Amino acid sequence: MSAPFQRARRPDQKDQRREAILTAARELAERSGVARVSLQDIATAVGLAKSNVLRYFGTREEIYLHLLMSAGSEWASVVSARLQEVSGTEATAGVLADAFVDRPFYCDLTTHAETMLEHNVSVEVLKVFKRWAIDTYWAIGRHISAACPELTPADGAALVMTASAFVAKLFPITRPPEALRELYAREPEIARAFPPFRPTLKRMVAATAAGLPLVRQ
Predict the structure, then answer these.
(1) Nearest-angstrom CA–CA distance, 150 and 156
(2) Which of 196, 26, 160 is CA-nearest to residue 80?
(3) What's the pTM?
(4) Which 8-state DSSP code applies to residue 214?
(5) CA distance 123 to 214
(6) CA-CA distance, 85 to 83, in Å (whole number)?
(7) What is the DSSP string of 141-198?
(8) What would the pLDDT profile of 80-106 be if each residue is shown by its tens digit?
(9) What is the residue range of 41's domain?
(10) How many Å apart are CA 205 and CA 97, to the nearest integer?
(11) 115 shares its domain with 38
(12) 5 within a domain of the structure (yes/no)
């Protein structure tokens, strides 16, 4: 029998409960995918009623935006460090691609950011998220410019945004539903039309990086 609900009253108790909610939401999404997790699933996993979860986060989408910023900050930290060790657009594209491929949860969040997670949240939450995104793009953009002198920091920021857009399109291909898996098994030529994630992402990012100086306004 579960322990009766006790309201968190002290700041440290509230922080612990917020972290428990975020941890449960992440674990559920890593197993089932972000799109399949409901607020009720999160509440059940953490042992709270939905109304009590909403004391800490306004919506399910807000929970996952917080997780996106956390995962994205970790991704950016790794990318920033690795970019200081490379030079040239090909190597830079490899750094960006590898950092995404190594973080499927972040890829899943990125896939749903604009189409799902930015919906059903408050203006203030969106303001925090968008400012975080802009700051992250520009921070990485400056490192990209240092690794690729032909690119400006603005080019670098644009490259990060473009890489994220490629991830949003390419990552779902790595997780086909059961019917598609059956189709690919029956029709290998159809499966071959959808290229593997990492090399395709790297190639598209490298091509974009090479082309940016040619179309700079």
Answers:
(1) 10
(2) 160
(3) 0.91
(4) G
(5) 37
(6) 5
(7) HHHHHHH-TTS-HHHHHHHHHHHHHHHHHHGGGGS--HHHHHHHHH-HHHHHTS--HH
(8) 999 999 999 999 999 999 999 999 999
(9) 11-57
(10) 8
(11) no
(12) no
